[in-house]
Structure formats: structure tokens, C-alpha cells
């Protein structure tokens, strides 16, 4: 309380007597104001280009989104959460850029019936963003213990494998990859959820066996390895990554899972040789898959020379490169790019796989670098949370969750730029897709929960009223129930 000025102290006492235990988040509020200003300028720029004069147009989508960010901020303040104050505004700016881009692209790229209404791309993306951020807020506010994650790591692993098998058996093929699972009227990509499940399992397993894995006691020729029984989960991860490539034809998910695994393995053991062994195994497996499967050959050949088939397999990559070239350093401006020729998108998957190219065309190299910079901010905050964690499990969990977002962004940006083979992963918080937005919202929510330092103590001389005492008893009972379930 000593950091609060007298007015804030009086307000805090008044709120506490009313049953509210606030923790003012001034840095987060200031950053959210910057987010609101940036998105408003972007919206006005887009509408002004469309109408040929300075105009704001119908800003209902933007207004709803900014109000939602404000409501979540107030919820964090009122519930007294002392969490990281930079992650949420960063995710908010990324999702706001997504809203601008989806509103700018041809709206008939995606049209769905929701509650009797027909929603085109922009409004539909807003719905998914709001659902994802609602999940973010719920997890950040209500998740206080990690026991339900820590103690059931093998259950989570089994659930992840079962999910993978469901996709193998019942998944539908979209764009040449078996990624989508349909359950009644709902559909989604379980690979998005699987990446979080695997991080939970790996964090629990590596934290539990860190000492044994850090000491190489088994020699195979000149190689020093951990005890053989503890190698099985690592080999299983290698097998899962290759199986995903074979059955789902999803190079992006396989690369993401394996890179996150190698990152966590290095953080847990600090042995760079294990990472080297993993890279060698992955390259050997990839070479074998290249020889055996034509779809792997197609992806690699497109990456090496997309101009070999410019009107066919290499069309999307070539069009993305042209978009980067048109954008230059400063970009063409919002609304002044070439997302479509008539009713045909210039890049078929511009709202999913190639949204980074769309951003680079209209916001230029500087805009694209700014977007990548936001992911670096998430990386810095996530690793800071991991460094301050109370134990190995929380540290590894925060590291893995951070890597999920950052590595995924690097993979899709590299694919757009032809630095890496083109993959089917989404750009977190920006690409269209409900599964991706929900899961990434959950990831940021978990990171916020891991960064929490508990509810702030009441001001001196203020006795909790009946409402507060009842809430304290409810939290205590809930904590005991959660402990029993864990």
C-alpha cells in the first residue's frame, strides 16, 4: 500500500469495504490505451482509403473489441490479480491487428451461420477473438493451483494421444492435410489443443526426472545418453512428430512439437548435446520420409524452387513473395494492397497460412517487423515468468507455453518468406481460426496465472465485511476441493 498515493489509498479502502479487493494495474491500462489509439488510427486509415476521404465508417466491430479489452482489464483489477501487466495488452494488439486485416480482406472468404445470423469473415473473427479472450480472462482469474496439471501428466499425455488417434481415424482432409475433426455441428483442429497438452506432459516429466536426464550414464559408442528407460518418452516424441507428417501430412505441427520438445529438453538438462542428437534424429527421419512419401517431396520441392510450377504447386508461395515485394519498406497502406483480383484472392489462403504476407504488403517491412517484435515481447515476458517460477514444473510449463506461441510464429513467418518449407500452422492471434484463437487465449491465460503473486493484502485498519469474509471462506473451501481432486 505504501506505493499508492492518498487518493488511491482512500479508493482502495472504500472498494475493500464494499467487498472488492482491487489491485490497480496502471501499466496495463496505459498500454491498453496505446493499443486503442493504434487500432483506431488503423481503422480510420482503412476506412479513409475505402471512401476516398477522412472517415471512420462503421466502427462497431472495433468498438466492441475495445470495450471487451476494457472489461477484462477491469475484471483483473477488481479481482485483485497481481499478474504480469504486459502480456495481455500485447496479445490484445495482435488480435486487434487480426481484426483490422480480416475486416479488410474479402468478406466472402469465410461465411458461417451463427445463431440464425450469417457472419462473414470480419464479424466471425471478432466472435472467435472474444471467445478466446474470455477464456484467457477466466483462466487468469480463476486458476490458482497447478496441481491438476502437475499430478495428471500421464493422463494428459494419454488424452493427447487419443486426440491424435481420433484425427487419424475420423479427421477430414482440408488442403491436402488431415487436420480437422467434425463433431456434430462443430469442427476444429485438435492439433492446436494437442500442443498445449504435450507441453503440460513434458513439463511434468522433465521436472520429475531432471536430475537423471541431466546426468549421462549410458554410453553408445562415443555418445553419452541418460538412462535408457528415460529415453523412451523422448523417442516417443520423435515418433509422434514423424507420425503427424505421415498421417496428417502436417509438417508445421510436427516441426512445432519437436522444436518445443527440444527447447524444453535443453532448459531442463542444460545439455546441448541432447538437442544436437534430437536434430540429427529429426533430419534422418525427415530424409527417410522424403524418400518414402510424395507429399513430403512436394513440400520440400516447392520450398527449393516454387517457380518450377508457378501456376500450380508453387503459386501461393510466388504470390506471397510478390506481396512482400509490393509492400517494400513502408507498405502500400491499409486497403491499398492486392488481396484479391476481382472475387479471386491473390493468395488462396491469405486469411490463414499467408496472413503475414498480407500484413507485409500493406504495412511494409516495418509493419511486419513490428508484428514480429510483439512476439518477441511475449517471449521476453514468458521467459521472465519462467525465471521467477517457484519450482521446476512451473518454470518448464511457462517456458513451453511461451515456446508454443513464439516458435509457431517463427515457423509461419519463415514459411511465408520462403526461409522454411511452407507449413499449415497459423500465425498466433492473427490468422483466422477458432481453434487457434481459443488455444492461444488459454496459453496467455495460463502464463498470466503462473505470473500471479496472489491477492493483495487489505489496507491497514480495514476489517473485511461479510461479503469479503464469505468470499475468503469460499476460496478456502474451493482450494481444499481442488487439492483433493489433484
Q: What would you note in describing this structure?
A:
With about 475 residues, the protein is mainly alpha-helical. It has helices at about 5-15, 25-50, 60-80, 85-105, 120-140, 145-150, 155-170, 190-210, 210-215, 230-250, 250-270, 270-290, 295-305, 315-325, 355-385, 390-415, 435-450, 465-485; strands spanning about 110-115, 115-120, 170-175, 175-185, 185-190, 220, 225, 340, 345. The strands form 4 sheets. A 3-stranded antiparallel β-sheet has the order 3-4-5, with helices on one face. Helix 7 (about 155-170) runs antiparallel to helix 8. It is globular.
The percentage of residues in β strands lies in 5-15%
Q: State the share of residues found in helices, binned by percent.
A: 55-70%
Report, as a whole number of angstroms, the end-to-end distance: 34 Å
Q: Spans with pLDDT under 50 lasting ≥5 residues? A: none
- Mean pLDDT comes to 81
Number of helices: 18
Order of helix and strand elements from N to C terminus: HHHHEEHHHEEEHHEEHHHHHEEHHHH
Strand line-up in the sheet with most strands: 3-4-5
By helix and strand content, what is the structural category? mainly alpha
Total strand segments: 9
Principal-axis shape: globular
- The radius of gyration over CA amounts to 24 Å
Q: What profile does the largest beta sheet have? A: 3 strands, antiparallel
Amino acid at each position: 500500500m505504501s506505493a499508492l498515493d492518498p487518493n488511491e489509498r482512500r479508493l482502495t479502502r472504500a472498494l475493500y469495504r464494499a467487498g472488492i479487493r482491487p489491485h490497480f494495474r496502471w501499466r496495463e491500462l496505459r498500454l491498453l490505451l496505446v493499443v486503442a489509439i493504434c487500432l483506431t488510427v488503423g481503422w480510420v486509415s482503412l476506412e479513409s482509403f475505402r471512401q476516398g476521404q477522412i472517415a471512420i465508417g462503421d466502427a462497431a466491430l472495433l468498438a466492441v473489441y475495445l470495450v471487451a479489452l476494457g472489461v477484462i482489464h477491469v475484471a483483473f483489477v477488481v479481482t485483485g490479480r497481481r499478474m504480469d501487466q504486459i502480456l495481455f495488452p500485447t496479445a490484445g494488439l495482435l488480435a486487434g491487428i487480426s481484426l483490422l486485416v480480416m475486416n479488410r480482406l474479402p468478406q466472402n472468404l469465410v461465411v458461417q451461420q451463427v445463431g440464425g445470423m450469417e457472419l462473414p469473415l470480419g464479424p466471425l473473427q471478432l466472435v472467435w477473438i472474444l471467445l478466446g479472450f474470455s477464456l484467457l480472462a477466466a483462466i487468469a482469474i480463476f486458476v490458482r493451483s497447478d496441481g491438476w496439471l502437475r499430478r495428471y501428466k500421464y493422463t494428459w499425455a494419454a488424452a493427447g494421444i487419443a486426440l491424435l488417434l481420433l484425427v487419424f481415424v475420423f479427421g477430414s482432409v482440408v488442403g491436402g492435410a488431415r487436420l480437422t475433426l467434425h463433431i456434430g455441428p462443430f469442427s476444429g483442429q485438435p492439433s492446436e489443443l494437442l500442443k498445449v497438452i504435450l507441453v503440460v506432459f513434458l513439463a511434468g516429466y522433465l521436472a520429475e526426472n531432471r536430475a537423471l536426464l541431466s546426468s549421462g550414464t549410458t554410453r553408445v559408442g562415443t555418445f553419452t545418453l541418460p538412462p535408457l528407460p528415460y529415453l523412451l518418452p523422448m523417442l516417443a516424441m520423435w515418433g509422434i512428430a514423424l507420425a503427424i507428417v505421415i498421417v496428417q501430412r502436417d509438417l508445421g505441427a510436427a516441426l512445432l512439437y519437436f522444436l518445443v520438445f527440444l527447447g524444453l529438453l535443453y532448459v531442463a538438462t542444460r545439455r546441448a548435446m541432447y538437442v544436437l542428437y534430437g536434430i540429427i534424429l529429426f533430419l534422418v527421419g525427415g530424409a527417410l520420409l522424403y524418400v518414402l512419401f510424395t507429399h513430403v517431396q512436394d513440400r520440400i520441392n516447392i520450398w527449393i524452387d516454387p517457380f518450377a510450377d508457378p501456376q500450380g504447386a508453387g503459386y501461393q508461395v510466388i504470390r506471397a513473395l510478390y506481396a512482400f515485394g509490393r509492400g517494400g519498406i513502408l507498405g502500400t497502406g491499409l486497403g491499398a494492397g492486392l488481396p484479391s483480383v476481382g472475387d479471386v484472392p491473390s493468395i488462396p489462403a491469405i486469411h490463414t497460412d499467408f496472413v503475414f504476407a498480407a500484413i507485409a504488403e500493406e504495412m511494409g517491412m516495418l509493419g511486419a517487423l513490428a508484428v514480429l517484435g510483439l512476439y518477441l515481447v511475449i517471449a521476453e515476458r514468458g521467459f521472465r515468468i519462467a525465471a521467477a517460477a517457484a519450482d521446476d514444473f512451473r518454470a518448464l510449463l511457462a517456458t513451453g507455453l511461451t515456446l508454443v506461441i513464439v516458435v509457431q510464429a517463427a515457423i509461419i513467418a519463415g514459411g511465408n518468406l520462403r526461409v522454411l518449407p511452407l507449413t499449415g500452422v497459423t500465425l498466433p492471434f492473427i490468422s483466422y481460426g477458432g481453434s487457434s484463437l481459443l488455444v492461444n487465449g488459454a496459453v496467455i491465460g495460463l502464463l498470466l496465472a503462473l505470473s500471479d503473486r496472489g491477492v493483495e493484502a487489505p489496507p491497514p485498519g480495514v476489517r473485511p465485511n461479510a461479503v469479503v469474509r464469505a468470499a475468503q471462506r469460499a476460496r478456502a473451501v474451493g482450494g481444499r476441493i481442488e487439492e483433493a481432486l489433484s
